[in-house]
Amino acid sequence: MKIVDMSHLMNVHTPGWVGYAGNKMYYAQNLQTKMIVAQRIDTALHVGTHIDGAMHGTDGMGDMASYPLDFLVGPGAVVDVSPHMDDWAVITPEMIEAAPVEVREGDILILHTGWHRYWEGQPQQDLVRYFCMHPGGKIELLQWMLKKKIKWFGIDCGSGDHAMNTSIRLMRPDLTKRFEAKVGMSCDAFFGEYSYVHKKSGRQVTEDMFPFHSYAFQEGLIHAENVGGDIEKMLNKRAIIGAFPWRYEGLEACPCRIVCFEGMDENVEAVGNVAKAIFQRR
Fold this sequence. Notes:
Blueprint: E1 2-5, E2 23-29, H1 31-34, E3 38-43, E4 50-52, H2 69-72, E5 73-80, E6 90-91, H3 93-98, E7 108-112, H4 127-132, E8 136-137, H5 139-147, E9 152-155, H6 168-171, H7 173-183, H8 187-191, E10 194-197, E11 204-207, H9 211-218, E12 222-225, E13 237-244, E14 253-255, E15 257-262
Parallel strand pairs: 5-7, 6-8, 7-9, 9-12
Antiparallel strand pairs: 1-15, 2-3, 4-12, 4-14, 5-13, 10-11, 13-15
């Protein structure tokens, strides 16, 4: 078995998503005065490589303690779509299906766009490009993932949604203007609206951004963001893929390690109530 880590190194320089605080680490006590080192970290949950729970974008479901290990860990594929990518590119189902690796029903899917190269600390670091100009899918890709019954997906970008299909289009009107000039239409026209029925209340919902958060999350399709590390060692390969967030009740997202295990049987089963996320809610 070979283990490949697709997680970014985390430190005090690690950026949060646009508008989110990063993190700070400090010493609560030190070796020379207390004989034991103790540190504290103050961080947003969407910092570094992390996975979003469904409650991040929808009502009443999907905190970090609710996901069984055989949801977080399972067979999947790392698909390289980077040859098709440039600033604000659109990822399509056809790109994934044309890649030289099979994506099977029920898989975990990791998308490699090449944008991890612009992450903090990388030789090509460019955080504006990384967070505000990254590729992503439109509603057609989301519908393809739902039809394919993808468990969860990860991407080496700042968001599971296309950068211009998030509130970045409102926070950076200068970049929005450049994007609209590139595609020859407004963001509203380019991405369009999408509709779904709210599972809790039955309300008809119509939105114009964040489909991979609002719509996908209520369908149980969550995602990991800022995937990186040694992802390039896994391009167009199948493996057991795992995300390992904290087992923390009520947490809407969590920094985590995302790891590929090559050379393992693809049959994965959670054993025991803890692994199956079965416990008495308070």
